[in-house]
Prior knowledge:
This protein is α/β, with parallel strands linked by helices.
Amino acid sequence: MKTIRKCFFITAAAILLIVLTEGCARKWSEEKMDSHTLIYNKGGVTLGYSPSSGVKIIIADGLAFKDLNRNGKLDAYEDWRLPFDDRARDLASRLSVEQIAGLMLYSSHQSIPSAGRGPMGGGTYGGKPFAESDAAPGDLSDQQKIFLSDDNVRHVLITSVESPEAAAAWNNNAQSFVEGIAFGIPVNISSDPRHGSDPYAEYNAGAGGKISMWPGTLGLAATFDPSIMRKFGEIASAEYRALGIATALSPQIDLATEPRWSRFEGT
């Protein structure tokens, strides 16, 4: 009887050990890239972070999470397993009024690299115009660093870019920069329409360059072919993502009521 009882306890202990080991087993892997590291969580999300930002990885239940505020513990807004609403409420409760105000603002138009003069320029690199500096096209300008860090701005409107490579590099540099600030809130990069051949107005100043060219809104509508519009959307989405752009400031479905509006033709 004692032998049977002893065997039972040994078996139960072995099962418990297996369960605990499985629960603590590593369920993530990492891949180091040139400027950032990718974290793959088994059955979960893929995370990206820049080692130079100071952000570390927290392990919980065998899964990896970013310690965005660098306090050494997993906070609710950092836990990708939680619903978006819960994470947003937790983050909002931690922000100051100044930080919240910054998230409600938009940058002025930003070119890559920042031009040395003009209404969309005035950017400097180490106090020098880009042409006189040693900066790479994808580096952040002095002014961009200020509105990202001091003004807490996270919505950035990109216009002309030197090349897709420069735009992607700028995006990576911007994300790395803000990842190391306060709560690690990322930059949301947006763009006005940029698939036309002629940047004839302020609202499409980023048009042209190394990107596919398409007719304007009226031209696409004149085809009366929804499949063409869908194809344009799919291609534009892929190109925007390659440039680091997450928000398109171009879809318009409202009716035009003010003829002096510069986007009247796009409705």
